Structures are given as structure tokens and as C-alpha cells.
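testing teh design pipeline on a random one, pls ignore if ur not involved
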């Protein structure tokens, strides 16, 4: 299992549009073969968004990153962010 945490920092005034775009990804991504987890979070008292994802293997991540919905969302969101998307591949240290 490969787990990923992704952080998004919207530009001031673009928070609602960033949230809309991220929410639009939930259904298509959770329907991808090899996706075990895809959860969207918003920082309390802040404007940052986080995705917590888990994929079966590298092939599942590659399929995700090459999907039409992924390519479209990356294009749509890039001008709405204050900084680059922060992607971390993580390792769970407990069960």
C-alpha cells in the first residue's frame, strides 16, 4: 500500500473554487481501480486543504495521474493556488 498526503494552499479569494474542484475529484478517484482511500480535509480556522490517499501500488498511482479527470483538475487548479501543490509519499508507522 502506498499512502500519500497532499496539501493545497489557495490564493486569497479562491478557497471556494479550490474546494469545489477538489470535491469534484472524490467520486472519480474513489472509483479508480487500486484506490483504497481518498479523503478531503480542510484546516480548521484556515484555508488549507489536504488529501489523504492510499493506492494499491505504483501502477494504481500511475493510472490515477494519467486519468483524464486528474489531468483536468491539475490544469484547473494551478492558477488558484498560492504555492505549488505539496505531495508527500508517507509510510504508516503503526497499524
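output:
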Amino acid at each position: 500500500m502506498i499512502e500519500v498526503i497532499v496539501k493545497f494552499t489557495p490564493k486569497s479569494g479562491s478557497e471556494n473554487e479550490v474546494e469545489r474542484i477538489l470535491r469534484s475529484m472524490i467520486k472519480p478517484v474513489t472509483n479508480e481501480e487500486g484506490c483504497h482511500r481518498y479523503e478531503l480535509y480542510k484546516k480548521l480556522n484556515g484555508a488549507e486543504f489536504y488529501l489523504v490517499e492510499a493506492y494499491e501500488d505504483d501502477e494504481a498511482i500511475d493510472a490515477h495521474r494519467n486519468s483524464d479527470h486528474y489531468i483536468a483538475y491539475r490544469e484547473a487548479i494551478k492558477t488558484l493556488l498560492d504555492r505549488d501543490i505539496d505531495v508527500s509519499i508517507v509510510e504508516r508507522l503503526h497499524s
